[in-house]
Amino acid sequence: MPGHSKDLTRLRIALTTFFALDGFIFAGWVVRIPAIKEQTGASASTLGLALLGVSAGAVVTMMFTGRLCRRYGSHPVTVVCGILLSLSVALPPLTHSTWALGAVLLVFGAAYGGINVAFNSAAVDLVAVLRRPIMPSFHAAFSLGGMIGAGLGGLVAGSLSPTRHLLGLTVIGLLVTAVAGRALLRYDSPVPKSAPVPQPAPSPQSVPGQPEERAPRRPDARTRRLVVVFGLIALCTAYGEGALADWGTLHLEQDLDAHPGIAAAGYSCFALAMTIGRLCGTTLLERLGRTRTVVAGGTMAAVGMLVGSLAPSVWAALLGFAVTGIGLANIFPIAVERAGALAGPSGVAVASTFGYGGMLLGPPAIGFMADWFSLPIALTSVAALAAVAAVIGYGTRRATAD
């Protein structure tokens, strides 16, 4: 039993590392968007179209990744996607037109979408075995990685070109993937002992006392509807993450005349707030339950984003970003975990497709709204969707049973 506990701890550490790496690489890319926008000569709307490449690559890949996870396991898929993500982040600064930028972002988005489905599926399996609501802790690692990546980006923005900066992220990503991937590949995904599973051939090393493969699930119509509902909650909240990642820096620099280093710190404030919220997430869920956590978080995020988008000063906007981060912190992990508990990797894939679709389709939509109205007005759509998430979350109170 002690050995089994150590194996689960190693799995948790390896998965946490991949979540952090994902946030680190993604944040490193987003803080260099203003420089790459200038390099390509893109307007707000054409930049939005280029960013659509990330959306298309991620959303298309997500459902396909769900099937790969069922066939080959979520751990190997996580490692492969980690390698692809690390390599593809170096491509955007090599482009000099919006069309070329959109093309390479398609590749980056495919890797980003794939790794998110894979490691979320692995995390859902581990949560089920541990029987504790630890899903927010994994997403806290993503936020912490994002905070570090954005902070580092702000520090090197004035001294390193985007090409050298993002190539450095490639090297770091490959090294981390080599170390954490080796640990992850030693074990198959654990599942609860009560789950009916087939008896597959043994792998090199499996978690002691656990079956090696999750049984295929055939969710009924009601379960499929619930998965879609949780996906909508994920979409509404992840929209805000994508908006602040891709447009928060530009809003501070362009609309509030912030110094580039201060502007880059805007996403760091948001990521730090999300990290703190998610580190407290397990305790919060154990005390309040899922429904109250979603409703309170959505309401807080709506208020915070109204301040962040409409405030006349940089510091007030940064405060609004932080409040938004705390509010959104645990809603997405709750939605993905519930979808995965209901329908396994397929549920994770559906909720992730909705959620990361919102994260990645939101920025292009904001780009168009910024051209039609203004960027501050466009960012208020984050507040509107956070409020919608709170309302839907309240409507699922019977499904979550807490």
> Can you count the helices?
15
Q: What is the string of helix and strand elements?
A: HHHHHHHHHHHHHHH
| Overall pLDDT confidence | 84
Taking Cα atoms only, what radius of gyration do you get, to the nearest Å? 20 Å
- Calculate the terminal CA-CA distance, rounded to whole Å: 31 Å
What kind of sheet is the major sheet?
none
The outline comes out as globular
Poorly predicted regions are 194-217
Strand proportion: under 5%
Say what oligomer this is.
Answer: single chain
Which structural class do you get from the secondary structure elements? mainly alpha
Number of strands: 0
How would you characterize the overall build of this protein?
The chain has 402 residues and is mainly α. Helix content is 81%, strand content 0%. The chain contains 15 helices and no strands. It has helices at 2-30, 33-40, 44-72, 74-88, 98-130, 135-156, 162-184, 221-255, 260-279, 281-288, 290-310, 314-328, 331-372, 375-395, 397-400. α3 packs antiparallel against α4 (74-88) and α13 packs antiparallel against α14 (375-395). The chain starts with a helix and ends with a helix.
